[in-house]
Structure formats: C-alpha cells, structure tokens
UniProtKB/TrEMBL annotation:
SUPFAM superfamilies: ClpP/crotonase (SSF52096). Pathway: Lipid metabolism; fatty acid beta-oxidation. One of its GO terms (cellular component) is mitochondrion. It comes from Oppiella nova. This is Enoyl-CoA hydratase. GO terms for biological process: fatty acid beta-oxidation. One of its GO terms (molecular function) is delta(3,5)-delta(2,4)-dienoyl-CoA isomerase activity. The keyword Lipid metabolism applies. Keywords: Fatty acid metabolism, Isomerase, Lipid metabolism.
Amino acid sequence: MRSTLYTAFRQHSIRCYSAATGAVNSHPPYKTLAVEASAPHVLHVRLNRPDKRNSITAEVFQELRECFDRIDECRHTRAVVLSGEGTVFSSGLDFSEMYTLISAGGWVISGEQVSRAPVDIAHNAKVIRKLAKQWQNSLNSIAECSKPVVAAVNGPCLGVGLEVAIACDVRHCSGDAYFSIREVTVGVATDLGSIQRVPKIMGNDSLVRELAFTGRNLNATDAFAHGLVSKVLPTGAETVGSAIELAKVIAGNSPEAVQGTKAGLNYSRDHTVREGLEFMVVWNQCMIQSQDLIKAAMATATGATMPPVFDDL
C-alpha cells in the first residue's frame, strides 16, 4: 500500500514538473516581462523594467496582452501571480516615451502619424481611439483570463500601474505600497479602467470620486480598510511570497471549479442575481459531468490523506 502511494505521488510530481516547464516554455522571451514557474501549475509574471520603476510603455501593453492570451490558452496553468521587479510595482505610464513622440513632431501610433496641429481632427481622433482600445484590451486580457490572477503589489502602484492591479482578481500589498488614480494630475481623464473597476471593488463612491478628482495617494492601511486589497504584508518579498502561497492553494483545486467560479463572479458582477444564477446553471449542466467532482467527493468521503489529482482543463 505504501509503495503504491509513493509511486502515485512520484508520478504526480513528475507530471506537475513537466506541466510547469511546459507552461513557461509556451512563452517567448519578453523584453519587458519575466515569466517563471513558481510552483506546479502556478506562473509568476513580473513587470521587468526596474530601472524605469516598471513604468508602462506601448511595448509593455503589447506584451501583457500576448502573455495573458497565452496563459488563458495554456491547459497547464491554473493560477498566476503578477508583481513588479524591484521595489516598485509600477509608477504608471512612461511619460518619457510619450514626450519623445510628441517632441519629435507628432505621435506615431501603430505606424500612423498623429499631427500636433489640428490639420485633420477626425483622423487624429480615430488613431488615438485605436491606441486607447489596444491598451484597454491589454488590461482586459488580465481581467478576462480564465485563470485567477493574484497581484502582489510590492511597492508604489500609480496610474496605469493601479489599472493593471485592479484587473487582477485578488490583491495583496506591502506595507509601504500606496495607490493613486494619477491621471488627473497629468491632464487626462483616466480611460483604462480605474473609474469602471475601482467603484465595484471598493464600494465607496464618495472616496473613489475623491481619489479620482485629486490624484492623491491611498496608503496600504486605507487600501485594506476599503477593500482594495485583501492582505497587507510587511515587505515586498513577503507580499510576493503570500501571493504565491495563495496561488498554490488555488491551483490545487479543481481547475473546472475554479475557472467556473471566476466566470460566474465576472458575469454576476454586471448582471442581476437571477441572470447570474441562470449563467451558473448553464455552466454546471455541462462542467459538473467531469471527473473532478467524483475525485473530490471520493477524497472527502474516504478521508484521503493526499489531495485529489485533477486533470488539466
């Protein structure tokens, strides 16, 4: 009996190692991101521009979209941790890149020139809209990823950095982290998710409007008190460790159940209770027929010491 259990455990460990390796190998080398396997079925994605305080450029947006589209399609990945390399989660949009584009005589967006002079306002507006939609879709790829994403906010989280964090499902932060809807201080109305997602996360319309109108910082203590984060850790390293431990717990559960739960939460957030219930009935009438329910029920009924081993979805 002991030999059988050992053999099963060893085979499971080998499968998990192979799955983790396969999940990482499915990603090309990125210039602005780092991707590694932190545990079986858990990927750790890092914003990897520490010398620029992990500021967000057009290339970062593009690579985030590509990375999370791949994660969404990867059967081996069940949970993701997203953090910033170094001591800053993200300082927001890289304005040096934007300034370079503007000072060169105009903006070049997706190969199209945007003139500084209002020669053709309609054309300029069309091209700017195209850019904004691309950036929105990059962040939506995080929010809509079928795998839960845990943000480890290991330092300041400003502007677009906040919009990256709130696209995640769960947020842990370090004690020195602070958050800001910074766009109003640089002369633009935020259009990448802050004023759509933060009110639903925090539930305090008055505070959200105050933060959005002033651009002031929200410290870690207040972020926890108002529901923006679910856990505050003393240091950035402990924050990342906490996020990874949570992701490991998530990855140990049935991927069908976890992904169905995320789909239901996302759908129900923007629909009535009755519509949300109907959505889950339709989901479960298909997914509940899998082996995951049987495996979990058997493990519970028999008091198994080893957790059930679920197949990749």
